[in-house]
């Protein structure tokens, strides 16, 4: 005998499906943004090395991306800490703001290599810097509510 869904079971299934899709889309967008953040970090480091006349250039290869991959993770974790938690320590609010700026700036510099119109680069930077985490956090919240956790 087949059981009929009780209450909003079908709606719960829809929420779970959309939350799962959100996690996949958010994670994919985050990886793309992380790649361009690392490209921007490479650009900044190479610029600093050239500025101080050091004859060394970091090449963009798979090994460097692997070594640098924790950097975007740290950015994302630190960015999502609410500055309200730092209200007794203004120096931490400044560090929080600098991390946001550095993440945005390095993603912007990394996207400049794609040779798009500047307005598109700025829009893509904003989307890749903030949207993936928002999508994933919202999806986790919906998923927790849908499964009753």
In short, what is this structure?
Helices cover 75% and strands 0% of the residues. The protein has 149 residues and is mainly α. The chain has a domain at 34-131.
Estimate what percentage of residues fall within beta strands.
under 5%
Structural class: mainly alpha
**What general outline do the C-alpha atoms trace?**
globular
Mean pLDDT: 84
What percent of the residues sit in helical stretches (DSSP H or I)? over 70%
Give the helix tally.
5
How many β-strands, per DSSP? 0
Span of the ends, CA to CA: 29 Å
Low-confidence stretches: none
Biggest β-sheet strands, sense, barrel: none
What order do the helices and strands follow?
HHHHH
Rg (C-alpha, Å): 20 Å
Attribute tags:
single chain; about 150 residues; 5 helices; about 0% strand
General description of the model:
The protein is mainly alpha-helical and 149 residues long. The protein has a domain at 34-131. It is 75% helix and 0% strand. The protein is built from five helices and no strands. It has helices at residues 9-51, 62-68, 70-79, 90-111, 118-147. It is globular and about 65 Å long. It starts with 8 loop residues before the first helix and ends with a helix. The model has no long low-confidence stretch (mean pLDDT 84).
